[in-house]
Structure formats: C-alpha cells, structure tokens
Amino acid sequence: MDVKAIVDAGPLVGWLNADDQWHAWSVEVLSDCRGALSTTEIVLGEACWHLGGNTKPAHALLSLVRNGAVVLVQPWPEHLARTQELMLKYACMDAADASLVVLSELHPRAQIITTDFANFRLYRRFRDQPLPLKIPA
Fold first, then answer.
1. Which of 46, 68, 91, 109 lies 20 to 30 A from 6 at CA?
2. pLDDT digits (tens, 9 = 90+) for 91-114
C-alpha cells in the first residue's frame, strides 16, 4: 500500500464540521491530497466521538471510509510494542497519536496532517527524527 497522507482526528473533524476552528484549513488541505487519506481505527473512533457520535457528520466520515476516500491502516498488533515504547517516552502521547507515529515510521515519505501541532512537534520517529508534518500556519 502506497501511503502518502496520514491524517489525524483533528483535520477529519474540521473537514466535516463547518463550525470547527480548523474547518477552512482542513477542507483546503485534505481536498488537495491526491489519493486516499490513511489513518488508524483508533483515530477514526476519536474523530467520530468529536463529531458527536451517532450524528450526520460521523456517518459522513464512516461513508468516506466505506467509499475508500479514507483508508484504515492497521499497525496493530504487529507494532504494538513500538506503540507502547512511544507512549512511555512521551507522557502527553495517547494510543491514537502513537499509532500515527508508527505509521510514519512504516511509511516514511508520508506526511502527517494534524491540527495538534503542540504535541506532534515534540514527537520523534525512528527515535530522533522530526515528523514530516502538515499543520496550520
């Protein structure tokens, strides 16, 4: 699988929620991506929760997955040890963030699209390399 764009929950929420502070940025950035957006199941769950659970925007996101515009990549269980290693290293890191860092290690040419620039600027892949980020200016 050729992963070019790894997307966090924030841009997915911003893309589908017109009231979100990152809506315009998310629409612009995600619309410019060529090919499917890649994420993980835990990030999908987080985005659905932020979209209000059983709501039209959450169902729109699920439809994007069903239609292949958003692809779920599964780093677990194979890379669960690396996920835990990252979470132990960074006190602010949750499993969703760790799953995206692991994807970035597995697909080093892909950018991570996130609105969580405070945390993702701190995280490192391959133990010392900054992540290739697409973040709001």
1. 91
2. 999 999 999 999 999 999 999 999
